[in-house]
Amino acid sequence: VEVKIEVVIPEKERSKEEMSPNGKASPLIYKVNGTARHYHLEEHPIASNPYHNPKDVVEASVCHVKDLENGQMREVDLGCGKALLIKESGEFHAMGHKCPHYGAPLVKGVLSKGRVRCPWHGACFNIGTGDIEDFPGLDSLPRFQVKIEKDKVYIRASKQALQTQRRTKMMAKCISLSNYNLSSTNVLIIGAGAAGLVCAETLRQEGFSDRIVMCTMDRHLPYDRPKLKKWLFLQSMDSHPEQIALRPKEFFCTYDIEVLTEMQVAAVDIKNKTAVFKDGFKMEYNKLLIATGNTPKALSCKGKEVENVFNIRTPEDANRVVKLATSKNVVIVGASFLGMEVAAYLAERAHSVSLVELEEVPFKKFFGERVGRAVMKMFESNRVKFYMQTEVSELREQEGKLKEVVLKSGKVLRADVCVVGVGAVPATGFLKQSGINIDSKGFIMVNKMMQTNIPGVFAAGDAVTFPLALRNNKKVNVPHWQMAHMHGRIAALNMLAHGMEISTVPYLWTAMFGKSIRYAGHGEGFDDVVIQGDLDELKFVAFYTKSDEVVAVASMNYDPIVSKVAEVLAAGRTIRKRDVETGDMSWLTGKGS
């Protein structure tokens, strides 16, 4: 386990501070305003005695050496907490047993080539270090000592680590704030979502010790945006911003990550490396990350300005919708992920929930017609009424507040609240005259290292298109929470000239009525869907194919199949359509294509 210890070094020992853990001079040097600076880690692991408090240590025999075969995992109890015991290539490893993201039991996940993949949302952890290697989530896992005595396996662990089941990686702090004025920073991050925060944290984890400034139009510190609509976890549509914060306020202070809230960038001057804010304030930067996400589309119909019509974008939006919708009539426009998840959440709270959608079936383009119909049937059995293949023509009001929603089909729906989920556009309008390449849809175009066409300018998250290795480097937009995390990490590493290319497999999930659909890959343009299991029972796995190749997979009540497929795709192996049609699963173990 890595224990964070603050070390005060005398002035005469200061030179040793710039040494790497192996005693050699660190080659990691970064130039700021023409001045070379060494990286500086504020905390140093003490390898000789990782357990600084003997009272905090527990040691227990957990099994016989022959109880586990290679490639097996077991959840073991040490008395004051549990650990995950793993055997791979003849060696035992032990680490935290819960995914730090949402607490999934990792013993039900997938072990492959030195890492464990979470069965719920696909985060990956190195079994040798506990470090997080793929997302979502910010924290790594604690790693515990394993020893073998008389054919028994013992685990020695910190009681605190067993209880918390998470570990924040060591980070540097800023040592040069006094060298900057308010209008100058080394790294400027526009946007404070997952991509921006992971970028900032990765820089600090890699030892970067100069100024980092994040700016956001939001009034809050970075928060878990999916929790605004994924009610299954923490019932967060009626929660407070602090409850869904990705990091507490103290974290940003500790690691000198400055966050400017309610600050909108109006333009970027790439020639002078300056961001111009809406209020006229200007900030110079050395490296820039643009991670502004997207902006929800609004309705364009008559009456769109009436009260109680919402795009759920902030905690305040979510709380307002819940308050107004309770025991009232709700109309949701758009059977998108947002629309469907909100409908599922409100079905038990509202008097009625109606969902209006232009397509024939929800999720048809994403999950296919058969899966879409199965999901639609589940919603109908939970009192959600669908109005398909139609649009909203008018929003009618009474005393300024929404009263009715009129459809183009002529149907009039009673409505006290309307939630709009009809898609989004990239929030990149402020870049139009910047010289940064943007495609016809407004997406920022980046390469595999998240670099734009302008040196020193990177972009990440929902607002970009990037080459997806899984689809032969096709330029795609993948607006998923997991992918935004990875974008941020790759951008940070390449700000530090690591030459790291993105190769992760897209992974997403959606939760409705206590059931989750998990999805991995990129199925855009699929031409067939192969179903295994029972759609009527909502226990199935769907393989999305293009020609003879499986390009994506979705499942419900079929864990951990999606994580298994994600590991196969991450290894660069091809899954053939004929394999999933015949039910041959040899490809899961590497025996197939």
Describe how the helices and strands are arranged.
Layout: E1 29-32, E2 35-38, E3 57-64, E4 72-77, E5 82-88, E6 91-95, E7 110-112, E8 115-117, E9 124-126, E10 132-134, E11 143-149, E12 152-158, H1 159-164, E13 187-190, H2 194-205, E14 212-215, H3 249-254, E15 257-260, E16 265-269, E17 274-277, E18 282-284, E19 287-290, E20 294-296, E21 309-310, H4 315-325, E22 329-333, H5 337-346, E23 352-357, H6 364-367, H7 369-380, E24 384-388, E25 392-398, E26 401-407, E27 412-414, E28 417-420, E29 424-426, E30 444-445, E31 457-459, E32 464-468, E33 474-476, H8 481-495, E34 507-512, E35 515-521, E36 528-534, E37 539-546, E38 549-556, H9 561-570, H10 577-582
Parallel strand pairs: 13-14, 13-19, 14-15, 19-31, 21-28, 22-23, 22-28, 23-24, 30-32
Antiparallel strand pairs: 1-2, 3-12, 4-5, 5-6, 6-11, 7-8, 8-9, 9-10, 11-12, 16-17, 17-18, 20-29, 25-26, 26-27, 32-33, 34-35, 35-38, 36-37, 37-38
Helix pairs in contact: 2-8
